[in-house]
Amino acid sequence: MRMTPVLSRLAWRYLWRNHRRTIIMLSAIAVGSWAMIFMTALSRGMVDQMIRDGISVLPGHVQVHDPEFLNDPSVANRITIPDRELAASFDTAGFRAWASRVKVPAVVSSERESRGVTLLGIDPAAEREFSFVSYDDVEGRFLEGPGDNGVVIGRKLADKLETDVGKRIVLMSQDPNNEIADRGFRVVGLFEASMPSFEESYVFVGKTTAQKMLRIGDATTEIVFLGDDYRDVEPTYERVIAAVDSGLDVRRWHEIDTYLGTMLRVMDGFVLIWVIVIFLALSFGLVNTLVMAVFERVREIGLMLALGMKPTSILAQILIESMLLLATGLVIGDVLAVLTIQPLQDGIDISVVAEGMEMMGASSVLYPKLYLNDVVLANVVVLILGFLASLSPAWRASRYEPVEAITKVG
Amino acid sequence: MNIVLRLAWRNLWRQPRRTWLTTGAMVFSNTLLVFMISLQFGMYELMIDNTLQVFTGHMQVQAPGYKDDQKMRQSVPEILPLAARLREDFGLDTIAARGWAFGLASSDERSYGIGIFGVEPDYEPGVSSIPGLVNEGRFLESHDETGIVIGAVLARNLRVGIGDELTLLGSGRDGSFAAAVVDVVGIFESGIPDIDRNFAEMPLGLFQDVFYMDGAGHQVVVSAATIDAAELLAPRVAASLPADSELVVHDWDALQPGLKQAIQADMSSAFFMYGILVILVAFSVLNTQLMSVLERTHEFGIVMSLGLRPGRLGRLVMLETALMGLMGFVIGAITGTIFTTWFTVNGLSIPGMEEMAAMFNLPARIYPEATFGTAIAGPLIVYAFTLLAAVYPALRLHRLHPVEAMRVI
Q1: What is the value of ipTM here, to two decimals?
Q2: CB contact (8 A) between residue B273 and residue A274
Q3: Of A166, A170, B256, B328, which sits with the fewest C-beta atoms within 10 Å of its C-beta?
């Protein structure tokens, strides 16, 4: 250990003795680590956005339904606890936001067309934080309260139904006894969403209006909760479990939208595989460089050994050389990555493939997301694997027989 | 063997470890490229086939504007005679007429909004996989007067089985109220929940009666033997449509624009990754060849002072690189093909990927297949970059002065 400063200095100088080779290797490491981080940031950004969009329609990090509801989304499977009781138990538990809503499949008809939609009966004040619709950007107006008699639909749906603000449409669903429940609504607002399919599939009406139309009293079909971070829903989940009646079904978002949940897990795996693949491609060059570096100075190594330097010091010196090379390359790559990602923060427009992205569930603007965790992972993996890959050349260097090494002709 | 070739070959093996390491980098990248490219293109093909064979077919004849708006009145008049004529003109059975409407389906206990297709029972199996997926009851027959086939999830949600009645409510082509009572004769299960939950099929004749179509429909679906054949067929179908009609032919790409774009998006990210791999290999080669040139400065000085021109030495270095690259190419392409073939036999499944696969109509287990094209595309590019990387070391030789070079030890 006492020797480390000397060995490090020696290693650093050795690196620059053949500066061309070192520069080429540094470029390779820098390009590799840049690619690791850049690609990871792009993919993370895409998945993040997908999940945010996805959760915003679900919405809520934790949801509560009647146990039968997800298989059979009918008002027959409703939650009968009135809001007053819910509020009593939830408001004290300190959730970031929660709301109860009526969500049922319905058919919407104009005088021209019919379409299938999901009807959302909401209390607009309670859902401001969840909603994928920004209330202020709605053409016309958004719902004003749970008793609002109007309906807010997506712009795309309005086009297909050939309707507009001020015109009337009919919503049809079923009541708990399977009688057709229908009601005419005046369109009061048109919303736009990041994903065109959202605009076609959701219509918003007031919660109490929906309850009246469906003849379900003050019952709802789902209760949604917002936590602080979608990646870590456990604290919210635990609290919801503790607060609600055990007869209800409590689920995390990734249990409801398994595609998005899978996406998140697959991403984590992808990042690791990508980092390892790049490292492997680099490792051949790294080992090659070390082998050359050792080969060039066999006689020096022999001399040092003959003068009494311990083999472990030779081993340490080569390893330090390798680590210095990797660390310098990584730093350059990291800086490059940050510099190239920074100007892209405002989003990369990929609307040429918008419909394709929508098929994957992603929107057409890509926001790269640089996570410290990913950067650390990339760097640590490269350093650890680089260390392991350097062991063999370093070991061989330290095993030279001094006399043979000195007399070797280079 | 040519003397220069022999010289180049021997030079390579002066440092066997270095040569193997550099070749190793190529073999690694090539193996990975062969596997990834085979997997990727195999998946694209599956994705396209599986998606198109559900409903879309290779092309459709529609009224103008129908593709984007799908409004009831954007219809194709006299659709059955048109489909029959097209079948006859092109000698193809895989052409079928359809109508599409939205409606509320009610059983005794439940009501759900669904998409309802009116189909030609005799020809629908030629353009869609749905008839073949009926695993309970039977598919429609042309004499069915009140039959309907529904998805398995829908059947479960509506709590109906074979022989049960459904009431359909919707609006007809003229906007009037449409209603019918139909009997469930079959239940299909595609395994894709969205399809099994949201669709039903009934005979086109019945559909036309219920929705006041007056002989019209919405799409004539045409499938060709292959995607490539479809490309040739599309303009011929377009040309055979009556000149005075406004009907248009949309190919699958126009009908499912997301499909090609999803593939493009996936390809561009894949190509970025491949590019990085190739660049890293090029760096490795550059390093090796530069070192091998610098090592031989003394030796090169001597042969140059004996009259050898730097250009010939440069060619020698390029030849060495070409030989090394060739080894990487051949070994990499072979290992890559073997690696891929292992998965061709055993299949590739990534745990937890089922949902993602289903999203793109892919099976949970994929059998990638290396073709000649996918086996050499990646290695060829690696080879090109290998040669490119050796250009700088080879050109450096021109700067060598024989006398100075000889002094270098």
Answers
A1: 0.80
A2: yes
A3: A166
